[in-house]
Amino acid sequence: MERILVTGHLGFIASAFCWNYKDRFEITGVDFAGWGSMEENVAPGTRDLRLDLADARALAGALDECNPAAVVNFAAESHVDRSIDDDTSFWSSNVMGARNLALEAQRRGIRMVHVSTDEVYGDALEEEQAWTEDSPIRAKNPYSVTKAAAELMLGSYAHTLGLDVVITRGANTIGPRQYPEKAVPKAVTCFLEDKAFPLFKTPARRMWMHVNDHASGILAALESGKSGEAYNIAPLEANEAYTHDVIERVQAIVGRGEIQPVEDRKAYDLRYWMVADKAHAELGWKPEYDLTRTLEDTVAWYLENQDWLAAANAKLAPIRSRDN
Ligand SMILES: NC(=O)c1ccc[n+]([C@@H]2O[C@H](COP(=O)([O-])OP(=O)(O)OC[C@H]3O[C@@H](n4cnc5c(N)ncnc54)[C@H](O)[C@@H]3O)[C@@H](O)[C@H]2O)c1
């Protein structure tokens, strides 16, 4: 079985990747167990190492131990509001971490898949056409700026050092094991606890993608992506929906709850809108989950795993109270 190193395996999307492909690869996960991570997320069979990607020596040691055929970089600080408060850790993880991993991959002559985001394109509210990979990069908040910076850095390493890198730009993702500061698990928590869900008052659209579709897109990029290229990974076109519609559907599935309009976050992007035609044509990848299945599967998981949700919320509680 091929050995790969996955970063951020205690987080949401990387853990789904590890659960889904644990029989396909021998996986070593590296994570510093930081914000958004849950020890409960480790997939069976995944070797579980703890280190900060910004620590180049520790990372080199882990790669020596694992000797992987490829690395897949999920690890990142990813919460926009936190990046607006203080982006220091975002530059350390999202740029320096990616840099250290890329230079190790290049030194070893192995492929790096870098998991980026549609947020690098900015806000599509005024756009007439959905983003393609050739659309301008217009990241607008500190989180997405660090993701865009990492992409430019990796592109330069591909160009100057011959790094074998493939970049994926995934859409807004939901599914099992997402930390409850993000909209859907936060809504399930609020509804179960009879607390009002705080919804930003300006309507915003997102393309809601099931984490299994995101994971299969990343696998396709790893196996079939062209070196130096970026691929949009988007759900079915009809999965685009306003956030308030999605939260109301979550409320209906849970069967109770209140929604309370609140002031928007600063720099609130109102639409992310892209097509994944290049991934369909070049990677042979297609998303499978429509919006109904995405929401039903996601909410069902939180309802069936309320211990996980309670543990994640307990971890979040001191930080929420510090914020208030
Ligand atoms: N969630 C989404 O909707 C979405 C959409 C598109 C792209 N992405 C990208 O997917 C990736 C994963 O996102 P997620 O939602 O699973 O995030 P997450 O916060 O759930 O997981 C990130 C993991 O990375 C780890 N990590 C962060 N910095 C690290 C460092 N310096 N060293 C070691 N580990 C570190 C954290 O401890 C955490 O376990 C990110 O790169 C993100 O930009 C996310």
Summarize the structure.
The protein has helices spanning 12-20, 56-66, 80-85, 88-108, 142-161, 183-192, 211-224, 243-254, 277-283, 291-304, 306-323; strands at residues 2-7, 25-31, 47-50, 70-73, 111-117, 165-170, 173-174, 196-200, 205-207, 209-210, 230-233, 240-242, 258-262. The protein is α/β, with parallel strands linked by helices. Helix 5 links the parallel strand 5 and strand 6 (165-170).
Give an account of the 3D structure.
The model has no long low-confidence stretch (mean pLDDT 95). The strands form four sheets. Strands 3-2-1-4-5-6-11 form a seven-stranded parallel sheet, sandwiched between helices. Strand 1, helix 1 (12-20) and strand 2 form a beta-alpha-beta unit. The protein has a single domain (2-179, 207-239, 267-290), classed as NAD(P)-binding Rossmann-like Domain (Rossmann fold). The chain is globular, with a radius of gyration of 19 Å. The N and C termini lie far apart (49 Å). The protein has helices spanning 12-20, 56-66, 80-85, 88-108, 142-161, 183-192, 211-224, 243-254, 277-283, 291-304, 306-323, and strands at residues 2-7, 25-31, 47-50, 70-73, 111-117, 165-170, 173-174, 196-200, 205-207, 209-210, 230-233, 240-242, 258-262. It has 324 residues and is of the alpha/beta class. Bound molecules: nicotinamide-adenine-dinucleotide. Nicotinamide-adenine-dinucleotide binds at residues 7-8, 10-14, 31-34, 36-37, 52-54, 74-78, 93, 97, 115, 117, 147, 170, 172-173, 179.
